[in-house]
Here is the input.
Amino acid sequence: MARKPGSSFLTAGSPLPFGGWWRSLAALIAGATLVLAFAPFAFWPAAIAAPAILFLLIRDQRPGRAFRLAWWFGVGQFGAGVSWVYESFTLFGGIVAPAAFLITALFVMGLAFYPAGAAWLTTRVARGGGRGAWMAAFVAAWVLVEMLRAWLFGGFPWLNLGISQVDGPLVGWLPLVGEYGVTALLLVMAMGLVRMLDGIVRAPRAYPSWLVPAFMVVALPVASMPLADVEWSRPSGEPLRVGLAQGNVPQMQKFDPEFFARTINIYRGLTASMPPVDLVIWPETAIPRVLDDLPGLRDELETTAEAGGFRMLVGTFSRDMDGRYYNALVGLPNGMGEYRKRHLVPFGEYFPFRGLIEKMPWLFQVPMSDLSPGRPDQSLLALDGVTLGASICFEADFSRDIRASLPDAGILVTVSNDSWFGDSFSPPQHLQMARARAIEFRRPMIRATNTGISAFIDPHGVTSQTLGTGMRGSLVEEVVPRSGATPLSILGGWPVLGFMFVTLSVVGFLSRSWRRPRRGQNGKTSGVSSRTPAE
Here is the structure.
């Protein structure tokens, strides 16, 4: 039965029969609930329920109204999930608390425009189409906007829906279609949940109307479980015995010249306490100066490594002949090579609008010059015939950055400095993304951090050993290099991107066709199609 023009699913027998500001509140709460799908909670069903609620709120709405509702959803999602950036603003450069709060609020509200844009795009494309058109447009728009968020302004892929499945039943899809393909599968399940709820509310005794989608919601994860056991890669070469050091040096002490010697002594002691190893890894900027400006320290470390029969990878800064500075992972002795970070963090490693910022010293004190990105064609690090795919901090959050070292890399190594964010959601969320990279490319990953969470991660994303936040210590484990390629490492995210574009285009074309006025034999318009999303 057709509804009155402008009526909403929420007022026409929907499972959410309310309107007005209650919808905005429901959107806010649903967005905050989505955070439960990610570490440290790992309650993955929230990644299905929260998008389903958002869809119920926006479907059959005008684009502007849908935009506003989804913006509140985004405020809840990012306000609950990434407000830990407040700590980095107060620590970095000593930004005063009121300014840090304002910047954090603006950051969260800015990120909220991404889900808002996805909702607006859904309503613009699917308006006039049937329920299937609305659902397909919602899935495609969400995935495309999520991918856009990982590219625009340097990218910010935190809380991408697919990452939640590191601990969920769809984990086996990550090597096939990556996190964005898994996002699409979760949204398909969310749309199945919506169809099930609609069927129960509208016609509870018409069992096929809700039992079929209910079966689909259950069947997809169950059928996906065997994929988690597919190897995609194979062992290649002798294992490396690797030791990693976590100094737990506070951020404000780390760059204080008075504590430099103490910091180095901490890492010396952790290295000396390790049993015999092939490789020792110190985390990002463990040496918080340009290593070439410290020839005595470099010579000492090389002598220590040679005497102990191991090699070292140390996080430090480096400088080229043109005076450019890099966030680097330096191999000692020199034969291992050096990796310079390619994907820099805006406002953390370089400052957009630096000239403007420096005119406000009462709010911002920029403590260092901008770093430069490393070349995209850097040689991979190598040790005893094993090739290492290196990444530094932010880079491990992006499949495309890790994919650049494959299929040559047998082991993935990432170093990070999560001390900016204290004991917040950030360190477990960051570890969860690193685990996703290991799964996507079926490579072991070694993760060394300053203050936690350091870990050895196997090719299936399982952490065998960890050092939590606020802990000082070392971990030692044998790591077996692997070879082979997953579908994602070969194709990247392009198939998912193309499929979502095609889906959105087809839905838009069909929806416009349904809205097009009908003409009689005399050529006069006889009215628009009466088809509505409820039919």
